[in-house]
Amino acid sequence: MADEPKGTITKTARQYNAAPIPQEVMNKLLAIAADYRKVKNYVYERYGGVKSLEKLYPGYTVQNEMTKTGLRKVLNLPCAYFYLAVFEALADIRNLWDREKSLVGKMARRNKNFSEDDKHYLLFVLSIDAVFRAVLNYETPKLKPKMEKHYQALAVSADTRRLDNYLRRKVRQVHAKLNTDVADRFSVGNDGYRYGDHGIYLSAKERRQRVFIPLTDNNVYSRQLEIKLIPEEGGVVIQAPIEVRVKKHADYTARVGLAMGMTIMLTADNGNTYGEDISRYHREYAEWLRAELTKYQKNVAANPGRKKYFAEKRRRESNLHSYINREINRLLKNEKPCVLYIMKFPAGNKRFGEKNINYALSKWQRGYIRKQLTLKCREHSIELVEVNGKGIADECSNCGKVGKRADGVFSCICGYNAPEKQNTARNAKKRGQKDFDNRHFA
């Protein structure tokens, strides 16, 4: 009997309104969303700078200061929304700083004027929050003895004044001010709602009042929910993160190489293909978006409404994503893999001469495909292995020599001929298994 799988993964459960939301109720929900945005923008403005870095973790200082501002009372926003908006904004600020530190780190590593000692010092400063805060605020870092000793050792071999000034300058260059215009969604804690009467009651801004939303199911969740409003349709989407136990399939034993493409979504090393219609979905979606953009730009002075546009955009995206998920599920069911090998995904910066081709490339759902493939592999205890993609499409999977590609077919002087994506998938499997052997039997 196979071992029971361990662990869980987080998935998003969605609930939908069973009937159109009355305009009066929708207006109350929109008022909450508008105030939720105001709170987030207030936090962005007040705590997004270098002076507030020490307040970002764990965030209770900001929570207390926000309480003292009296903003919640001015907006008359229930605590179930107000403090979630505060901590959501803080999370955004933290993520922004993490991305910017990563960007500055890449700049430092690529700078040819820096010695290895210089780079080591800069990367140390970027990796230790207390030192990073102190440098940006022209302060002396306060560290524990062991960390202080390491910091001083690095500082001795580097021109700290020059490097600290470089760091401050680069941070000023890359640091952005956060702001959100999103006023159609908000989060609510479990003290701000209750389920009942085949629906959900959400706290309103009015004291001791709740608004009722009828739902299409009777599922009940006791966790933080995200409420997304679709006012033009009188609709609401409720999203709840749920823990799902991973599955283990005794018959999932195959090791499968995969290749991704725009014409065919995924090709296995045995030649099986999945998502043969993905190019049609992509093309129709991209052509529709481009046509709508052209139409809007021609009539922008007349201030045309966008409600129908956004409704249709959501419908088309939903159809595309449903197709992608259906084909990934079909792949896992048919191939029964325990390991999937796939080349590292391209950066997506390739450009062609024709604008319509470039536009279609920009709308390619490779990020969504990758995210869903990763999620479903985790859900079914399947290992997803990325392999080096350099030259993988031009290498013959039969003999290893460089072959030719023409009209979707790969051919080699050794006599091997196959669809080029199948050849790529075979190479992904070979490289993945070779790397595995090198790691475990070296």
What is the secondary structure topology, with strand pairs?
Layout (H helix, E strand, L loop, with lengths): L7 E9 L6 H25 L12 H10 L1 H5 L3 H32 L5 H12 L1 H8 L8 H12 L3 H15 L10 E4 L4 E4 L2 E5 L6 E5 L10 E6 L4 E11 L8 E7 L5 E3 L4 E2 L3 H21 L8 H29 L1 E7 L11 H8 L3 H14 L3 E5 L16 E3 L2 E3 L5 E3 H22 L1
Parallel strand pairs: 8-11, 11-12
Antiparallel strand pairs: 1-7, 2-6, 3-4, 4-5, 6-7, 8-9, 9-10, 13-14, 14-15
What is the share of helical residues? 40-55%
Care to count the β-strands? 15
Strand portion: 15-25%
Radius of gyration: 27 Å
The low-pLDDT segments are 348-353
What do these coordinates show?
The protein has 442 residues and is an alpha+beta fold. It contains 13 helices and 15 strands. The protein has a 5-stranded mixed sheet with strand order 10-9-8-11-12. A 4-stranded antiparallel sheet has the order 1-7-6-2. Strands 3-4-5 form a 3-stranded antiparallel sheet, covered by helices on one side. A hairpin with a 4-residue loop joins strand 6 (225-230) and strand 7. Helix 9 (278-298) packs antiparallel against helix 10. The chain is globular, with a radius of gyration of 27 Å. The protein starts with 7 loop residues before the first strand and ends with a helix. 24% of the residues are buried.
Provide a concise account of the structure shown.
With 442 residues, this protein is α+β, with helices and mostly antiparallel strands. Helices cover 48% and strands 17% of the residues.
